[in-house]
Amino acid sequence: MTATKGLEGIVATTSSISSIIDGVLTYRGYNIDDLAENATFEEVVYLLWYGKLPNQSELAELQAQLSEHTAIPNAVVEQIKLYPSDTNTMAALRSAISALALYDNTANDMSYEANITKAIKLQAQLPTIVATLARVRAGKEPVAPQAGKSIAYNFLYMLSGQEPEASAVTAMDKALVLHADHELNASTFAARVTVATLSDIYSGVTSAIGALKGPLHGGANEAVMVMLNEIGTFDRVDDYIQSKLDNKDKIMGFGHRVYKNGDPRAKHLQKMSEELGRANGDSTLYDMSVRIEELITGQKGLKPNVDFYSASTYTMLGIAGELFTPIFAISRVSGWTAHILEQFENNRIIRPRAEYTGPSHQTYVHLQNR
Ligand code: ACO
Question: Domains of the chain (ranges plus CATH)?
């Protein structure tokens, strides 16, 4: 038995949800470029869960179901108020999602009907939880979402308590479309491993959030913003990046296990970042990002991934860095739950082997003789 570090190149399951073939990402066979330009996030959620694009009445029904479930239990709001205000937002989100299961009496019902309803609830409640976390930290009361509005609209509305601009809603919606699913990424794999033991959907999503939190995965978008803030001004970019490269530090937001010729999602976020910079009359973050890309691609051949331009995009939308990875979760919960449902359809416990590299033929020495 020989281990493959990081399971690189290992095909661990079949899936009909999303694919990355020759650098092209599709959801259910639809090119991400096409979806990013044309579909709303709710259409994509439907596509991921049900395997086809919704017609108007199917979409209206899903929107009504999502609207019905946006509220979170009061007990969870009260718990959130007790979390330390300086804790990592993804850690707080992980705890709150786990807590949701305690207040859902269908949490352990493993029927398809119960699980798809829980998927709807998780998709509807996750934005409410993230906005609640943000507002409570800022010492403000949570804001209830508006009925009949999109997830992108309501998330921005719940954050600020004010009607968001149409352009901000469009940008957020597109970001959600771009992050919704991504084949067998680390957090989706974590979700599938968890539920393949026949544990419940909340456990699967909680595992996924734990995996997404890490800076080599979803946490990279926040880390990119930390880097941009450390650099501060355009004229400092070259020296900063050169010293990182000299120290052999990783540059967050670059590189990818699967894409070697560039992440197809990155160009959409780059365009959004450029447009927001122009609309805001301040392109500093965009210009800095482009210069970083020139340096990293030029010297290391590494291309930006989905996280790189999302940092400047979200910042220009007025969103704090600590919410970037939770926004990723707001979108990716659609993919996680689609994969969990798919795992349940044809389940077998996921239990690979390890190549043992420890000592052998040891002789037990009694405690008193050690
Ligand atoms: N900066 C500098 N060097 C890098 C970077 C980077 N961002 N990414 C890869 N490299 C280098 C590695 O040091 C390694 O060099 P070596 O062969 O000389 O040791 C080589 O490129 C291969 O990189 P690995 O880390 O082995 O690639 P792996 O497939 O294991 O990791 C990963 C992929 C985690 C995305 C990696 O590129 C990385 O750490 N990037 C930065 C974090 C990041 O942006 N994560 C988000 C990924 S997208 C997502 O999950 C949403």
Answer: 13-214+323-345 (1.10.580.10), 220-316 (1.10.230.10)
Question: Which ligand 1 atom lies nearest to the CA of residue 305?
Answer: 48
CB of 217 sitting under 6 A from ligand 1: yes
User: Under a CB-based contact definition with an 8 Å cutoff, are residues 240 and 231 in contact?
Assistant: yes
Two tokens at 21?
Answer: 């073939």
**Closest by alpha carbon to 326, among 18, 97, 75, 141?**
97
The pLDDT tens digits for 204-217 are: 999 999 999 999 99
Catalytic residue, chosen from 179, 182, 217, 256, is 256
Query: Within the chain, where are the H helices?
Result: 32-38, 41-50, 56-68, 74-82, 89-102, 112-137, 151-160, 166-179, 186-195, 201-212, 220-231, 237-246, 266-280, 284-300, 306-316, 324-345
List the strands of the sheet with 30-31, edge to edge.
18-21, 24-27, 30-31
Work out whether the CA dihedral 293, 179, 169, 221 comes out positive or negative. Answer: negative
Residue 260: predicted pLDDT: 86
Residue 92 token pair: 């707080």
How much is the pLDDT for 1?
A: 86
Distance, CA 250 to ligand 1 centroid (Å)?
7
Q: With a cut of 50, list the residues of the chain below it in pLDDT.
A: none
> Quick one: pLDDT at residue 164?
97
Identify whether 256 is a catalytic site residue. Answer: yes
Looking from the CA of residue 256, the nearest atom of ligand 1 is: 35
**What amino acid occupies position 51?**
G
243 vs 246: CA distance, rounded Å: 5
Atom 9 of ligand 1, residue of closest alpha carbon:
255
In whole angstroms, what is the distance from residue 231 CA to residue 59 CA? 44
Joined together, the tokens standing for residue 285 give: 């973050």
Q: What is the pTM assigned to this prediction?
A: 0.97
CA distance 345 to 337: 12
Running DSSP on this structure, what letter comes out for residue 352?
Answer: -
Q: In this structure, are residues 120 and 65 in contact, taking their beta carbons and an 8 Å threshold?
A: yes
Q: What is the pLDDT of residue 119?
A: 98
DSSP one-letter string for 73-90: -HHHHHHHHHS-TTS-HH
Choosing from 248, 250, 307, 308 the residue with most ligand 1 atoms within 8 A of its CB, the one to mutate for a pocket test is: 250
